[in-house]
Design a protein that fits this description.
The complex is a heterodimer of chains A (608) and B (247). Chain A is 35% helix and 17% strand. Chain A has 16 helices and 21 strands. In chain A, helix 1 links the parallel strand 1 and strand 2. In chain A, helix 1 runs parallel beside helix 4, helix 2 crosses helix 3 and helix 13 packs antiparallel against helix 14. Chain B has 247 residues and is an alpha+beta fold. Chain B has two domains: 100 residues, Ubiquitin-like (UB roll) (Roll); 142 residues, Alpha-helical ferredoxin (Fumarate Reductase Iron-sulfur Protein, Chain B, domain 2, Orthogonal Bundle), CATH 1.10.1060.10. Helix content of chain B is 36%, strand content 16%. Chain B has a five-stranded mixed β-sheet with strand order 2-1-5-3-4. A two-stranded antiparallel ribbon of chain B has the order 6-7. In chain B, helix 6 packs across helix 9 and helix 9 crosses helix 10. The relative contact order of chain B is 0.12. Classes of the chains: A alpha/beta (608), B alpha+beta (247). The interface between A and B is large, with 66 and 59 residues. Bound molecules: flavin-adenine dinucleotide, iron/sulfur cluster (2 copies) and FE2/S2 (inorganic) cluster (FES). FE2/S2 (inorganic) cluster binds next to loops of chain B.
Chain lengths: 608, 247
């Protein structure tokens, strides 16, 4: 392999979603050379799909809000497995990051006195989500993109990192292929920031796109970094269930924030029947109180539809299991009913939830201002990810940083809605800043040619194999589908030891198939080949999620074990950390959770 | 359950043509589902862009039965399936492979437009106050998902290939969003006339017709920009008035 195209940067950023772009802007602001790589075109990353809003305790709508309440809400939502330092930094810095977005051109919805408007969301005590209708992610990514292109950052679009390259202990760069021609590229860098998002593609019903194959998780793991909290996968309670081809597409929590209610086939509003003890004091005890809350009555408490996502998702599952579901296997989400309270309900809904209106109209032929929607749980977000330092976002591999959904810590056992977009801004920025500082201290590392030759050979193997592969062997898509089926049915919302063990066996069998998978065609923009290369990543994250799921013998947050339905005191004290052993096997360790400081303890108590 | 014929353009920059595939169409399917099904069943290497499958990212633009649309938002039940469905890549941009086109020109074009330049914060807390009425106009433009379907149908680009002279409807929308941003102090009016070719637009409204976000590109973005250009060049008093009132 002669003549590989090579690029040199101080900081290389993998991913151009909210986290990657924030990191790039901050790193380049620190005066170092920055390159960004992304699998899709710029502006198309997952962040573009976020709907509801970005959580930041600006107290524009309710002056009782503060970083302390936001911190306490985040910890409670995460069932105290969160990294407390990250939860604190996040709550403190999110407001400034949101204002910074405004100074870069974002135009949020406004309060009457012209400030940034904030809306209610599950698990947040006060209205806290800055938003733009229900297309907040679009506003955010476009703002970062349009600002970022003028900051002297180099973007390499439709280019995928295949493996990280190390020099001794530290990370030294990345080996990539670009989609257009299928050519390989090498990026050398003093520091690498992974901002690759999640791995919802490991499941069949998901709100995530083809990009979400757990690349960053796997790149880091293979490079020796630790993963943590991998058993915690958020199943969002409301995805579309019909028609079949759109199953899983998200219906924003904003619908419930604006007053939408959940009903079963008997027309019963079932969420009032099951309110967890630790949320009882904060939850409305009448339908009227719930409604008043959504309309901004400060003395009202939140309706039970706005309890945390893990809880709402399980309540919906139970209705379906009990035979009280809707015709296509969901339950009803009704926003049209607010016409009982609002004379101009139709216009109001279209203004507040324009893209939901559009989505149902176009894809399901349903007018949500008239009829209820059918919804059910969908795989949505990975709380688990790369184990990082709370302040700097560096992993245990020197020079390897991670931020955004692919990093872990902030959310613990369950993420609150809106806390992801703020996570991207806060920790993306931090990762960029600290990566720049780290890179400045490094001298360029030598990368062995042999290593590059070996990687090229490995990447080309599926294409090379095609002519000699047995004709009846499973192709890349079939292997991917088999993995998704198994994870959905055996490592989903409700989990059991023997089912997860069975999933592991399936994963082993699929690993063998993936190692021999062949792809048809040539190197130019060939999705079959790319799917074949992604299999290693999907299999790695699926295995990590399953092993961690078996290890945690309790139910907590998003992780629900039918065979251990209660919380356990022992597991309340540990995070599960995963690393790759010298023999290549996956090792699991239980590590004590990070202790709270005295001040943090007091804040939690005050806001109980 | 019936099989439907899909004629999909396959090829690269050297040429190509439509190839026929048959696949089963089930309830609720959109064009992108059919393409994916074909990809998984019989054409693993069929190149196509997509991300969100919900009309939010603007990746899956193509020409379906000759009309420029998002594949993920075109339901098969709305098409006359007996005649089969044709799917071609966008014609205004060079093809890379199959349904994927080279849209880099759009990224380079955006870079040429003066960036957002806010006035100094003037509220006590070091930020700004903005009234809802002042956000509404701009928010319409900011709904743009950069699918480039409007660029695809604009005859100035599609037939006359004036890519060097004319930035196209997408970037007229972008420029309008900046010009009408309540905090922005920049001015792109001179550039719109001299470098961005606003004069080439003869208000055919083809762009507005295809915009999946329903942005009234011609009426709300291009015509007001044309008026600003006219004021700037031919009506100094109106220009001053606009400057003072930021309308
Ligand atoms: C439908 C939907 C709605 C949501 N709504 C909200 C909301 O309202 N509020 C909220 O807070 N959160 C929301 N979320 C969650 C939130 O949007 C995501 O968690 C967040 O956007 C992830 O951002 P990120 O920067 O970490 O990664 P992404 O935005 O996903 O970006 C990942 C980037 O990494 C690149 N990449 C991946 N692998 C590779 C590789 N191997 N090589 C090169 N590049 C690679 C991708 O191309 C992409 O550019 C929502 C999520 C979904 C799916
Ligand atoms: S109205 Fe103008 S920009 Fe739009 S398609 Fe016609 S000529 Fe092009
Ligand atoms: S203006 Fe409309 S058609 Fe043009 S790129 Fe934006 S969303 Fe697409
Ligand atoms: S896939 Fe995102 S718009 Fe079609």
């Amino acid at each position: 392999m002669a003549d590989l195209e090579t690029h040199d940067y101080d900081v290389l950023i993998v991913g151009a979603g909210g986290a990657g772009l924030s990191a790039a802007i901050k790193a380049s602001g620190a005066g170092v050379r920055v390159g960004v790589i992304c699998k899709s075109l710029l502006g198309k990353a997952h962040t573009v799909m976020a709907e509801g809003g970005v959580a930041a305790a600006m107290a524009n709508v309710d002056e009782r809000d503060s970083w302390k309440v936001h911190f306490a809400d985040t910890m409670r939502g995460g069932q105290y497995l969160n990294h407390p330092r990250m939860a604190e930094l996040h709550a403190k810095e999110a407001p400034d990051r949101v204002r910074e977005l405004e100074s870069w051109g974002a135009l949020f919805d406004r309060t009457k006195d012209g400030k940034i408007l904030q809306r209610n969301f599950g698990g947040h005590r006060y209205p806290r989500l800055a938003h733009v209708g229900d297309r907040t992610g679009l506003e955010m990514i476009r703002t970062l993109q349009d600002h970022g292109i003028h900051q002297g950052i180099n973007f390499h679009m439709e280019c995928t990192v295949f493996r990280l390259i190390k020099a001794g202990d530290r990370v030294a760069g990345a080996f990539c292929y670009e989609r257009e021609k299928g050519r390989f590229k090498v990026f050398r860098a003093g520091a690498v920031v992974l901002a690759t998002g999640g791995f919802g593609r490991a499941f069949k019903v998901t709100s995530n796109s083809w990009e979400y194959t757990g690349d960053g998780h796997t790149l880091a793991y293979d490079a020796g970094a630790e993963l943590v909290d991998m058993e915690f996968i958020q199943f969002h309670p409301t995805g579309m269930v019909w028609p079949p081809s759109v199953r899983g597409i998200l219906v924003t929590e904003g619908v419930r924030g604006e007053g939408g209610i959940l009903k079963n086939s008997d027309g019963k509003r079932f969420m009032f029947d099951d309110i967890p003890e630790n949320y009882r004091g904060q939850t409305a005890d009448s339908e009227n109180e719930g409604w008043r809350y959504t309309q901004g009555d400060r003395n009202a408490r939140r309706p039970p539809e706005l309890l945390t996502r893990d809880h709402v998702a399980r309540c919906i599952m139970r209705q379906i299991k009990e035979g009280k579901g809707s015709p296509h296997g969901g339950v009803y989400l009704d926003i049209a009913w607010i016409k009982e309270h609002l004379p101009n309900a139709r216009e109001h809904i279209k203004k507040k939830l324009p893209s939901m209106y559009h989505q149902f109209k176009e894809l399901a032929g349903i007018d949500i201002t008239v009829e209820p929607m059918e919804v059910g749980p969908t795989t949505h977000y990975a709380m688990g990810g790369i184990h990082v330092d709370g302040d700097t976002q560096m992993s245990n591999v020197p020079g390897l940083f991670a931020a955004g959904e692919c990093a872990a810590g902030l959310h613990g056992a369950n993420r609150l809605g809106g806390n992801s977009l703020s996570d991207l801004l806060v920790f993306g920025s931090r990762a960029g800043e600290y990566a720049a500082a780290f890179a400045r201290e490094q001298s360029p590392a030598a990368i062995a040619q042999q290593e590059l030759d070996r990687l090229a050979e490995e990447a080309l193997a599926p294409l090379e194999r095609f002519d000699s592969a047995p004709k009846d062997a499973d192709g890349p898509y079939q292997i991917q589908y088999a993995l998704q089926e198994k994870m959905q049915s055996h490592v989903g919302i409700v989990r059991l030891e023997h089912e997860m063990a069975e999933a592991l066996e399936t994963l082993e069998a699929l690993k063998a198939k993936a190692a021999a998978v062949a792809a048809y065609g040539n190197r130019e923009y060939n999705p079959g080949w790319h799917t074949a290369l992604d299999l290693h990543n999907l299999l790695t994250v699926a295995e990590a999620a399953t092993r961690a799921g078996i290890e945690r013998k309790e139910s907590r947050g998003a992780h629900f074990r039918e065979d251990y339905p209660e919380k356990s005191e022992a597991f309340a004290k540990v995070n599960i950390v995963i690393s790759k052993g010298a023999d290549g096997a996956m090792n699991l360790r239980q590590v004590p959770v990070k202790p709270l400081t005295g001040e943090q303890q007091a804040i939690i108590k005050e806001n109980a | 359950m019936t099989k439907t014929r899909f004629s999909i353009w396959r090829g690269d920059s050297h040429g190509g043509g439509r190839q026929d595939y048959e696949t089963e169409v089930t309830e609720g399917m959109v064009v992108l589902d059919a393409v994916h099904q074909i990809q998984a069943e019989s054409a693993n290497d069929l190149a196509v862009r997509w991300n969100c499958k919900a009309g939010k990212c603007g990746s899956c633009s193509a020409e379906i039965n000759g009309r420029s649309r998002l594949m993920c938002m075109t339901r098969l039940s709305d098409l006359p399936l007996e005649q089969g469905v044709t799917i071609d890549p966008m014609q205004t941009f060079p093809v890379l492979r199959d349904l994927v086109t080279d849209v880099k020109w759009n990224y380079a074009t955006k870079q040429r437009i003066q960036k957002f330049t806010p006035r100094t914060p003037d509220a006590e807390d070091g930020t700004w106050r903005i009234a809802t009425v002042d956000t509404e106009r701009v928010q319409e433009f900011r709904k743009c998902i950069e699918c480039y379907l409007c660029q695809d149908v604009c005859h100035v680009l599609r037939e006359h290939h004036l890519h060097d002279e004319f930035i196209g409807p997408r970037f007229m929308v972008y420029a309008a969003a900046l010009e009408m941003q309540p905090l922005d102090t920049g001015s792109r009016v001179k550039a719109l006339k001299e470098d961005f070719g606003i004069g080439y637009c003869n208000i055919t409204k083809c762009c507005t017709d295809v915009c999946p976000e329903g942005i009234k590109i011609t009426d709300n973005a291009i015509i007001p920009l044309k008026e600003r250009v006219a004021d700037e060049y031919y009506d100094p008093i109106k220009r001053l008035w606009r400057k003072l009132t930021k309308t």
